[in-house]
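Researcher: For the record, we're logging two predictions in this thread. I'll number them. Prediction 1 follows.
Model: Prediction 1, sequence and structure:
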Amino acid sequence: MTNTHKFWETTPLQKMTPDEWEALCDGCGRCCLNKLEDIDTEELIFTRVACRLFDDTTCRCANYAQRKSIVPECVVLTPDNLHEIAYWMPETCAYRLLYEGKRLPDWHPLVTGDPKSTHKAGVSMQGRTVSEHAVPVEDWEDYPLDD
């Protein structure tokens, strides 16, 4: 996917091709982090506890094609469900930003043309997570994502 045509600036999310939709992902891996929600305040807390399929070397799902069948609670983001899920996405997420009418950050790979720009900008979870296999659910709150 080249960025000579800045499709994300002209094409509504609902009209993007599957390749364009997938290209929006900056590869930060934050959507693969387990999140906690404070029942009283509804505050969303990202943890460093990652989905069991998350590879924090590549910041990608180890089995993207079958993720939903392996991890039934995995949320598959689509243009049709984005309005329900945007709140749960990281504030820097391209899907959320575009949904909210905002621009992509300067470090986004579509803007820079560099697939590693998210890592270089220090935004990704590369080397910063612990697997959910290693941490019991009741201890997730001990692993907040401190940015």
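Researcher: Logged. Prediction 2.
Model: Prediction 2, sequence and structure:
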Amino acid sequence: MEEQIKHVVACLKSLFIGFWLLPVILIVVGEIGEEWVGMYAADVRATYFAETLTILLVAICVPVSLKLFAWVLTRKIDKVSLPEALRLYSFWSKIRMLLLTLPMLAGFAVYYLMLSNKGVLCAFIALTASLFCLPGEGRLRKELHINKEEEA
């Protein structure tokens, strides 16, 4: 069981690192600046639509990603056996990171395509919310109510 716990934690940590490497790559690509940067900056209607959509995406995805996981943890994961709980914990952690990836990607797209600061603000909100999802063995054990003494 200890190996399964370490495997789940390692997978979630690599996912989290990948989540944080993605904006770094987007920033590098955006700052190198090809002809696509600022492509829609002059289109006021498209900029307004994209900004509004990104703001709504952040307003929906950030609370849902945080609250949904807590809800699933108490209603579903706590009621199953440990191996199944580890599988569900891993699955729902990935869903939570996916929900935070959507507004982050949309925010950077709006920032670079429309040169709108609202886009980068939304991306940073999603990145900040991901800090509440920081994976670790201690956190997994606490959320799944696993004590090391019980394992031995």
